[in-house]
Design brief:
By secondary structure, this protein is an alpha/beta fold. Helix content is 32%, strand content 14%. The protein has an 8-stranded mixed beta sheet, sandwiched between helices. The longest helix has 24 residues, at 419-442. The structure holds 2-acetamido-2-deoxy-beta-D-glucopyranose (2 copies). Residues 320-321 line the site of one 2-acetamido-2-deoxy-beta-D-glucopyranose. This is Nucleotide-diphospho-sugar transferase domain-containing protein. Pfam families: Nucleotid_trans (PF03407).
Length: 655
């Protein structure tokens, strides 16, 4: 099945570019070409049947050419549709690379001409949107959704969704910060054959019954959600998701009569909001997503403005009863918290169809999102050079001190996943990072960050009370995901590392097949023990360093391994006692001021923080973090500067 379906999104010319990752599993059967969703549809004349399909037309910038490349005649008319410009070029390239690898039928609407030129050269099914053809249109890149250019973008993209649906395609509108891991075609088409083969590979039977494609077959429109509980998503279906924000960054509109009318109305409402509080400023709406949320709900009913159905179906009647509105299951259409924090799909044994990088922290920008994707091996567009070079790997381990703190709580019958443990952990991680980073620079190696463990979630904004929910984002607590592997933005600022130009890699880097060379394990032994005997070395260590030591001694002792691409430290606690070169020391300590800064961690306390936090912190600690009576922040110092390596350090130490 692969060769045929590969042709859908991209032509052959891009194969060379992305022969990269191949660890994908396409678990459903071959997609047969003639099945159509059963719902009533607008059929353009002479649609599906007559073989043989003509060769796809050259990409001339038209929508039709892109559509016939993405979804040739004879194929199910299902298409993923996204939009992007040069500003999001890297994210778009990642989107396209994933779509190609997963044989996802997709069309890219280029918002500017360079994007069209680049993607069409690569053979992607791309066309020029009306904005690309417009002289002088520029997105100003602000993401507050209120700028004029953003509004015009929203008008354009809803119009394009409506246009493609009107041509008879089931459209999965997708933001560009999404990766498609598997083709959604079988899930959307949901033929008898698709159902038999897993309806898009849902997996285990109970999961299949709850979220298989049949549960959404009747939906004209189905939308993803910002909700966070995979359990409630399973148990309660549409009634759960509808209580929160519906996210149109992943939105299915089927080419049924009702779906077609809805898409046109969505566009019309975004383009010219009818007067009145519901859609027009100042009450509403700065984004197409807001318009969508208001459209489907009936303001005459109590929130959520919809009549909740009996039972636990995945769709209900919405938009004044005119459409069947479904919610795309979280486990298959994963939002950022679900995927990058809860790791929920994996726990359920489900591989998502799509992952949407919502809920990223730091500056919520492409840097943070790219980082999140990289950490899970979902960033496909690094060039070959990225994988070449010499690296120093820092591994994660729980320090004895942290283990003792956790143990203290556990012995008292409390959870070891709490704010005290988390704050201590972050401080320790960054102190270790100081030494590992300094050593990597001294060795001329790029540091590979560890998979740190987090013991308390971090809020997107501090307006919720996380203490009430066992240190989990309110609404996600039933996933019971603590402790979890920290995304970097829970510990540091990826944007600051980028701005400082500090190269680094993530732990997932080591799992990439393009990284070559054996790992040389470095053992660490406290100097006193090292002097007494050299047999305390861990068995797998190729070399043992006495700690603490200075950078010169480390370089000398590691010199035999200078040709090895990968050296690995088991941890970096009390690793360095100083840096020899005064110039390098100054430079490093200046850099550390920027790189080793842990972002403030803040939460609201619904009761007074002095009461709520008494269980965890002393009155002094509570007072130090207080931001008014009902908000508390953990604030962190940058670790102490590294000292000069003089007498008393390392080799020279008089032990
Ligand atoms: C809702 O639908 C009913 C009939 O189906 C119609 O009479 C009414 O005008 C509609 N209301 C709105 C707000 O569209
Ligand atoms: C996610 O869960 C799976 C299955 O439990 C596990 O194998 C994997 O290591 C987890 N990944 C992370 C990042 O926690």
């Amino acid at each position: 099945m692969a060769p045929l379906r590969l042709a859908l999104c991209l032509a052959i010319s891009i194969l060379a570019l992305s022969a990269m990752h191949t660890g994908l599993t396409l678990t459903y059967g071959a997609a047969s070409s003639h099945d159509r969703p059963p719902a009533p549809r607008h059929e353009p004349a002479a649609a599906a049947l007559s073989p043989p399909p003509p060769p796809p037309p050259r990409l001339d910038g038209s929508l039709d050419a892109a559509l016939s490349l993405a979804s040739p005649r004879g194929h199910a008319r299902v298409v993923v549709l996204t939009f992007g410009n040069e500003k999001v070029g890297r994210m778009l390239a990642n989107f396209v690379a994933h779509a190609r690898a997963s044989a996802t039928p997709c069309v890219v609407g280029a918002v500017d001409l360079p994007t069209f030129a680049r993607l069409s050269r690569e053979g992607a099914a791309v066309y020029k949107t009306p904005l690309a053809l417009e002289e002088g249109y520029r997105m100003d890149g602000r993401n507050d959704h209120s700028s004029a250019s953003w509004r015009r973008f929203a008008v354009m993209r809803t119009g394009e969704v409506a246009r493609v649906v009107a041509k008879g395609y089931d459209v999965l509108h997708s933001d560009v910060d999404v990766v498609w891991l598997r083709s959604p075609l079988p899930y959307v088409r949901c033929s008898a054959e698709d159902v038999a083969s897993g309806g898009g590979a849902v997996g285990a039977r109970p999961v299949e019954a709850a979220i298989g494609c049949g549960t959404l077959r009747a939906a004209d429109v189905a939308v993803s959600s910002d909700n966070m509980s995979p359990g409630d998503d399973f148990r309660r279906g549409v009634s759960y998701a509808i209580g929160g924000t519906l996210n149109t960054g992943l939105l299915l509109v089927r080419a049924t009569e009702a779906g077609t009318r809805f898409a046109a109305a969505w566009h019309a409402t975004v383009a010219s909001p009818p007067a009145g509080r519901k859609f027009a400023p100042p009450g509403c709406c700065t984004s197409d997503q807001q318009v969508f949320n208001r459209m489907v709900r009936d303001e005459r009913l109590p929130y959520p403005g919809l009549r909740l159905p009996a039972g636990t179906p995945r769709h209900l009647a919405a938009w004044n009863g005119s459409i069947a509105l479904g919610v795309l299951p979280l486990a298959l259409f994963a939002n950022g918290h679900h995927q990058f924090v809860q790791n929920a799909s994996a726990r359920l044994g489900v591989r998502p169809l799509a992952v949407h990088a919502t809920y990223s922290l730091d500056r919520h920008d492409d840097i943070a999102k790219t980082q999140r994707f990289r950490e899970q091996g979902l960033w496909r567009v690094d060039p070959p050079e990225y994988f070449k070079g010499k690296f120093l790997v820092l591994r994660h381990s729980v320090s004895p001190a942290l283990a003792a703190t956790i143990d203290r709580y556990v012995k008292r019958g409390m959870s070891g996943n709490n704010i005290v443990v988390h704050v201590q952990a972050l401080k320790e991680y960054v102190l270790e990072l100081r030494d590992a980073l300094a050593l990597s620079r001294a060795l001329g190696r790029t540091l590979v960050l560890p998979r740190w463990m987090c013991y308390c979630d971090r809020l997107w904004s501090g307006s919720d009370d996380i203490f009430h929910f066992g240190c989990m984002y309110p609404g996600s607590q039933d996933a019971d995901f603590l402790p979890f592997v920290c995304p970097m933005d829970h510990v540091l600022s990826p944007a600051e590392w980028e701005a400082a130009g500090q190269p680094y890699r993530d732990a997932a880097f080591l799992e990439d097949s393009r990284v070559s060379g054996p790992l040389v394990e470095i053992g660490l032994t406290p100097r006193a023990e090292y002097k007494a005997s050299s047999t305390t070395a861990p068995a797998d260590a190729a070399v043992v360093l006495p700690t603490p030591l200075d950078d010169e001694e480390a370089k000398r002792r590691l010199a035999p391994f200078s040709a090895s691409p990968l050296l690995a430290l088991p941890h970096a606690r009390s690793l360095l006692c100083g840096i020899s070169s005064e110039a390098e020391r100054r430079e490093f300590n200046d850099l550390a001021q920027r790189l080793l800064r842990i972002p403030d961690w803040c939460s609201t306390c619904f009761s007074k923080c002095s009461d709520e936090l008494a269980k965890w912190f002393s009155p002094e600690e509570i007072a130090a973090g207080a931001d008014g009576p009902n908000r508390w922040c953990a604030r962190f110092q940058v670790p102490p500067a590294l000292r000069p390596a003089r007498d008393g350090c390392g080799d020279n130490a008089a032990i």
